[in-house]
Structures are given as C-alpha cells and as structure tokens.
Amino acid sequence: MKCSKFIITGVVQGVGFRYHTKQIATKLGLCGYAKNLPDRSVEVVVHGFDGSVLEMASWLKRGPAMAKVENVVEKVIDQKSYTGFEIF
C-alpha cells in the first residue's frame, strides 16, 4: 500500500479536474481527496495499492480533456486512513 500527495499545476481549476479525479480514483479503488489550492493548483492525495497509485499518477499528468497540465509533483507521505474519495 502507498499514500502519495500530488500537486498539479497548469490550467487545472474550473475544468472539472477534481470531479474527474474522483471518478478515476473510485475506478482504481483509491481513497483520499482532491482540493483546489489558492495558487490555482490542485492537491490530490491518494491511498491504495502501489499499481493503482501509479496509474493515478499517470492520469494526473494528462488530466481531463479541458485541462492543460504543466507539472505534477509527487511526494510519498505517511499512510493515512481515508474512507472513499472526497472533493474539497
């Protein structure tokens, strides 16, 4: 199991990024959250099987169709218990 925090920059707010992230996370069996940050980036934390976190990381680099992802920074963090996937 792995827990990672991602900071995604680019055109990632106002394009359904968090909504689509939740759909992908649910499909992959990941728990965690997605939230907009004041600097117009998005923070995503996911917890689950290593392979699923890797698939999420790959998807975050593309994002939904309307997004223009410029950069994704991943940091492995201490595992936390999440129930489902939340949008903040």
TrEMBL record:
Its EC number is 3.6.1.7. Keywords: Hydrolase. Residues 3-88 form the Acylphosphatase-like domain. GO terms for molecular function: acylphosphatase activity. The active site is at residues 18, 36. It holds the Pfam family Acylphosphatase. Belongs to the acylphosphatase family. This is acylphosphatase. NCBIfam families: PRK14426.1. The keyword Zinc-finger does not apply. It catalyses: an acyl phosphate + H2O = a carboxylate + phosphate + H(+). The keyword Kinase does not apply.
